[in-house]
Structures are given as C-alpha cells and as structure tokens.
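EI: anyone free to look at a 282-residue chain?
SC: sure, send it
EI:
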Amino acid sequence: MTNPIYIDQKEILKHYKQPDKHTHKGIQGHALIIGGSYGKIGAISLSSKAALKTGCGLVTVFIPKCGYTILQTAIPEVMVLTDNQEQIISNITFDISPQAIGIGPGLGQAVETQNALYQFLKTNRVPLVVDADALNIISKNKKLLALVQPKTIITPHPKELERLIGKWHSEEEKMSKAVSFSKQYKIIIVMKGAPTRIINGETVYENTTGNAALATAGTGDVLTGMITSLLAQSYEPTSAAILGVYLHGLTADIALPETGYQSFIASDVIANIGKAFLSITE
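SC: here you go
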C-alpha cells in the first residue's frame, strides 16, 4: 500500500474553485437526488438541503408520492418529482437534465425498487453518487456492478462496504480489498469511518477533519448531498469526494464547542457548511 495523501487545508486548496462572481443559478449546477420511502423521507430531505447549501444552483428530488408535501413544506427551495407509487420508488423517470445524480438515501429495498435501480443503472450516463440502500441492493445483485459507470462515487459505511467487498480480518486486508474493488470496477470509494478514506485505484486519501460528533443518524445522507452538489458544479469526481468529505468533517469541528459530541445532529452539519467553506480560504 502506498502512503495516503492527507486531506488538509493545503491539499484542499489544490481542488477548491472560487465561485465566479458573475455566475447564476442556471450555470451553478443542477443536482438530482433520488431516494426516500415511507418513513424515510427525512433522509432525502437532509441530502437535498445539503446539496443546496454546498453551492448547487438547482436541486430536484425524485421521491415516492408520500414525501411530496413534506419536501415542498420543509425545503421550499427544492423541486420535487414523484414516482407513481405512494410509498416506494418503482420507476425512475424524469425529463430534466441534471449535471449529477445522488441515489440511495432512504430508498428502501422493495423488489420494485431493486428493479427500478437496475433499469436506471442500465441507461444512466450522468455522473453519479451511490449510497445507502442503493449500495445494499447492488450488494444483493452483484451483476449490477457491471452497469455502474467508471468514476462513479460510492459512499459506504463499514457494514455496507463489507457487503460489497467481503469480510476482512485486519485494516490492511480491508484496504487491500477496497483498492482491488476500486480498480476492478473503476469506481471511487468514500470509505466512511474514523478517519474517512477515499480510494481511487492505487491512490488513497485520508481525511483530517471530523470527530465523534458525526456518529449520528443522517450524517451520511448529508455527505451524499454535498458530494453530489460538488459533482453538479463540475468538480472532477475525486475532487468532489475530497472536498465533500473535508467540509463535512469540518462542520463537526466548527460546531463542537457549542454542541458538544452528544447533541450534534445531521442538521448541524448542514447549518455549518457555510462556515466550513469560509474557513477554507482563511
């Protein structure tokens, strides 16, 4: 294994692009977040709001009908498309042209949803972030991996990673398996943990921000929204992953003196994204 490249402020400045002061929403990127199911609309709410707060000009969600009123009320800035099913996603169709798509938060694993993901992956050519139940569906149906486009970003937590690459018995074995998996399928792995690592073939990045406050429900959904937003803003996939992971961790470092570890929640990540951006160039 090669030594990791540490994701610190010096490394971040190689990737971060200052916004053009003459930009407008039409050229600031359009992200589509696909997910949600009955009882899990909160995941897509967190993900889509994070995408907006990370600088995307436009954000659309594709959700089951049961989430329509929730999203329109909770986040008026987000546009909403719905499946024809009430409680699950069964057929992913849309007539917009997003620059990036995030899929998986709150998605569930219903049989109809598994088929919808299969049909989506067969035709999708838009830069993609795959998370949560979309990863779990792929783990159950490994043939879907052949449909995933090169440079797709996946964001597994340890259990989701294990389902994809198999069990490991040491940190070295885990890294070796992850590198092999990344090379075989030409995908970028955001290996969530303490620390979070990003694997792009033989190249490994290790994040330096974040703390135990992030060990709370929904922070992964927020990260998916952040990385999808950066992809939509024309960041190269590895740069989008690096910047997203760094900012995500930084929000917890910024908030910690006020929240402590115990009372920090996923919404606090979103609330501190602006301060995280400001601190990049300080």
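EI: Residues 101 and 128 are 5 Å apart (CA to CA).
SC: 👍
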